[in-house]
Automatic annotation (TrEMBL):
One of its GO terms (molecular function) is ATP binding. One of its GO terms (cellular component) is cytoplasm. It comes from Ditylum brightwellii. This is Clp R domain-containing protein. Belongs to the ClpA/ClpB family. CDD domains: AAA, RecA-like_ClpB_Hsp104-like.
Length: 865
């Protein structure tokens, strides 16, 4: 290298960490700055990055020094003049040279780092360069896989340096021309920085060693590459920031194409909701403010409605303005925000998305799930949040957007921003009825059968809708019913793919006997066993012989049943594929193929499915009962509900009418001597279950009066066990703890700003956890009068709002008050003669009315409950 005139570079820090430090073209300076040294011969010298200068280094010292990083002349190759992705690739070129054991950095190595950054540990930012490079090649007609393979062969075939000093690298003249061309491309493309596309264009133009010959072999010209770059940049425009590559085709990165997923059959069918979908389409067809927002409780099907719109768009069952090529794309706010660590980076990403949408001339509709997340998203240090970036396009009608959010989140975030609220038109999505939920489940049934490889009986669908509606009140239909069906299918699928219990028991018994036999056999050989041991050994041999025969039969049975089930699953998958292909052919007007599939292939598969299903049901080997069950029934749904709620499944499926008719007898078996009270309680419950009472109120409201020890609390426990299958379903509140005025707030929770606000209310939290329960207010006469204000609302409306704004439903509860009021009259007049009984009831009733009137004051209506 001494034959070349060169300028020695100052060294970097002696640290072993690889850095991209640069030095000016002066010999004496050791201050790290930017640049790499260019010599008069047109070659570039890379020097070790330890020590003040290479001059004076011994050969052994040079060998001990670590490989250098990439360094360029400040005036030509400033890092700030490159995009982050392009610079990450350029600054890693020495790693490519080290990978191929050479000191000469050539132009094909730049293409290698652009296409394979992970192979050379180029960093995450270089992956953006890889994505854009591969996209350019694909759009221009290049076979990327072949291109990469030939590039690897070309670089592997270059001469390798197996000894000597490899820390000095030189740049080939072709690579020098590529960099000069990349700087020219910056102005040609209108960019503010050298980009990955500029490097690709430069390689296409000036790399005579590999790129040009390879593209010629694949019949791809420079103009093809340039056209691909222009097409990719159609929406984003010139690169005006260092993160430009990350914003190309932003919708593909930060969005999910619902119409494409619908075309691939990846969306579930949408059953019902015609009015809501029609209303949303009507809003989308407006000239301005054409942005519907779907508002409803979690799980009622807001996202499903957006998917239903996408399916109608694909089928053409929409107005002309929404027909293909119009697309519905869901915006992933999480992906949009993730990794945007620098100020302005999030805004650039969102701006790129909006530019793509506005330049599509109405062919793209955005769907923003959890729309409240756009309020405040990306805002930091005074920068604008996503909602403020969206407002102008929303108001002008340039952007058609469907939002979805819950009622609480809409009230909390969207309503407060009036400028954002007025740009969206509300579409309320209510919870479907259990009957509508059954229809939805029937529509989803084929999808879940295909996924889990099981069959779902209609009784399971009915049970899922009914039991979820009754026993899981803190969630909403149809989501909770779908979850029940899904989990029941998953449970059955796990049983299908596991060894049957009867076979597992036989296998374990065989292992146990073989271990015992081995022990006895050893004793027999050592003559240390008596006649009983020999007899036991003989019995073990006989039992093992029988068990192994049974094991073979069970194994054969198991494999036959598994084969039958798998055969059904294979046919179902083929039917799903054919159905999807029929829809595709009908969309593309390939009517001949559609007719062949619809009237020939599909009926044959359906007939085969029916035969195979019948065969799988009738498989019988060895006289054993069927081991595998591939049908989900109502019991499976009840078992899942039991896991979720703790209620025994037998009680859920038992006929309620039969239970209610025998209620009085069951209670009398446990509570002795209170027949009259039990009859009153039974009549109240039966009246409620017969539908003769107000469904908006609790099941029953009762007051038990009497002295201590007569069985008031015991009757409450018996009622709880009968109705809800466990005494634990009784919520007991001792009203002596609520004697002071300030303690009343403990029932519903302390108001905001007070101690205990986060703890919730003792009554409301207990009912939210156990919505089916008996609520016992013990010794009600000791409570503060303000407690009865809460009770009045509870008994009248069947619901109470706690301190956090949660509405707690008491309509599935039995409300019971106990009191000792009038106890002395009961003791004094508790005779068996009718006159004493009548006088006792009159006096106790008057005492109770006087107490309630005093407590409730202006609300004597309390007693009517």
């Amino acid at each position: 290298m001494t034959s070349h005139r060169m300028i020695a570079l100052a060294a970097l820090s002696a640290s072993l960490a690889t850095t991209q430090a640069f030095v000016p073209n002066t010999l004496s300076s050791i201050t790290p700055t930017k640049g790499w040294s260019h010599v008069a011969t047109g070659k570039y010298t890379f020097l070790p990055s330890s020590g003040p200068s290479r001059m004076g280094f011994s050969s052994s010292a040079r060998k001990r020094s670590r490989p250098t990083t990439f360094r360029m002349a400040t005036e030509d190759f400033d890092e700030t003049k490159y995009t982050s992705a392009a610079w990450e690739a350029v600054s890693s070129l020495t790693k490519v040279a080290d990978y191929y054991s050479t000191t000469s950095v050539e132009a094909p190595m730049l293409f290698d780092i652009l296409l394979n950054p992970a192979k050379h540990n180029a960093g995450e930012k270089a992956e953006a360069a890889q994505a854009i490079t591969e996209k350019i090649l694909q759009k221009s007609g290049v076979d990327v896989k072949v291109f990469k393979s030939n590039l690897e062969k070309h670089l592997s075939g270059q001469p390798r340096m197996t000894g000597g000093d490899t820390t000095q690298k030189r740049m080939g003249t072709t690579l020098s021309r590529v960099f000069e061309r990349a700087r020219e491309n910056k102005s040609i493309l209108g960019d503010s920085f050298v980009t990955s596309e500029g490097l690709v264009l430069a390689l296409t133009k000036d790399d005579d060693k590999f790129t040009k010959p390879e593209l010629e072999r694949q019949k791809v010209s420079y103009n093809n590459i340039l056209s691909a770059v222009e097409e990719i940049r159609k929406a984003s425009g010139p690169a005006t920031s260092r993160s430009a590559e990350t914003n190309y085709e932003a919708l593909n990165k930060y969005g999910i194409d619902f119409t494409e997923r619908a075309a691939k059959g990846k969306l579930d069918p949408v059953i019902g909701r015609d009015d809501e979908i029609r209303r949303a389409i009507q809003i989308l067809s407006r000239r301005t403010k054409n942005n519907p927002v779907l508002i409803g409780d979690p799980g009622v099907g807001k996202t499903a409605i957006a998917e239903g719109i996408a399916q109608r768009m694909l089928a053409g069952d929409v107005p002309d303005t929404l027909k293909p090529p119009c697309k519905l794309i869901g915006l992933d706010m999480g992906a949009l925000i993730a990794g945007a660590s620098y100020r302005g980076e999030f805004e650039e990403r969102l701006k790129s998305v909006l530019e793509e949408v506005t330049q599509s001339n109405g062919e793209i509709i955005l769907f923003i799930d959890e729309m409240h997340t756009v309020v405040g998203a990306g805002a930091s240090e005074g920068s604008m949040d996503a909602s403020n970036l969206l407002k102008p396009a929303l108001a002008r009608g340039e952007l058609r957007c469907i939002g979805a959010t819950t009622i609480n989140e809409y009230r909390k975030f969207i309503e407060k921003d009036k400028a954002l609220e007025r740009r969206f038109q509300q579409v309320m999505i209510n919870q479907p009825s259990p009957e509508d939920t059954v229809s939805i489940l029937r529509g989803l049934k084929p999808k879940y059968e295909l996924h889990h490889g099981v069959r779902i009986r209609d009784e399971a669908l009915l049970a899922a809708a009914k039991l979820s509606h009754r026993y899981i009140p803190d969630r909403f239909l149809p989501d909770k019913a779908i979850d029940l069906m899904d989990e029941a299918c998953a449970k059955l699928k796990n049983e299908l793919t596991s060894k049957p219990e009867v076979l597992d028991e036989v296998d374990r018994r065989i292992i146990q006997l073989e271990m015992e036999r081995l022990s006895l056999q050893s004793d027999v050989e050592n003559e240390s066993v008596d006649d009983m041991g020999s007899l036991r050994l003989s019995n073990i041999d006989d039992e093992l012989e029988k068990l192994k025969v049974k094991q073979e039969q069970l194994n054969a049975r198991w494999m036959a049943e598994r084969g039958a089930v798998e055969g059904v699953n294979e046919i179902q998958e083929k039917i799903a594929e054919v159905t999807l292909e029929i829809e595709k052919c009908e969309r593309e007007f390939d009517l001949n193929r559609a007719a062949e599939l619809k009237y020939s292939i599909l009926p044959a598969l359906q007939e085969k499915l029916g035969m195979t299903t019948g065969e799988s049901d009738g498989v019988e080997i060895g006289g054993f009962a069927r081991m595998l069950r591939d049908e989900v029934v109502a019991d499976d749904i009840a078992n899942v509900v039991a896991v979720w709620t703790g209620i025994p499944p037998q009680k859920m499926l038992e006929s309620e009418s039969d239970r209610i008719l025998t209620m009085g007898d069951k209670l009398k078996e446990r509570v002795i001597g209170q027949d009259e009270a039990i009859e009153v309680v039974t009549e109240a419950i039966q009246r409620s279950r017969a539908g003769l009472n107000d469904p908006s109120k609790p099941i029953a409201s009762l007051i038990f009066l009497g002295p201590t020890g007569v069985g008031k609390t015991e009757l409450c426990k018996a009622l709880s066990e009968f109705m809800f299958d466990t005494e634990e379903a009784m919520i007991r509140l001792d009203m002596s703890e609520y004697m002071e005025k300030h303690t009343v707030s403990r029932l519903l929770g302390a108001p905001p700003g007070y101690v205990g606000y986060d703890e919730g209310g003792q009554l409301t939290d207990a009912v939210r956890r156990k919505p089916y329960s008996v609520i016992l207010f013990d010794e009600m006469e000791k409570a503060h009068p303000d407690v009865f204000n809460v009770m009045l609302q509870l008994l009248d409306d069947g619901r109470v709002t706690d301190s956090k704004g949660n509405v707690v439903n008491f309509r599935n509860c039995v409300i019971i008050f106990t009191s000792n009021i009038g106890s002395q009259d009961i003791i004094d007049l508790g005779g068996s003669d009718p006159e004493s009984q009548a006088l006792m009831k009159e006096r106790v009733g008057n005492a109770m009315r006087d107490h309630v009137r005093f407590c409730v004051r202006t609300k004597p209506i309390f007693l009517s409950f």
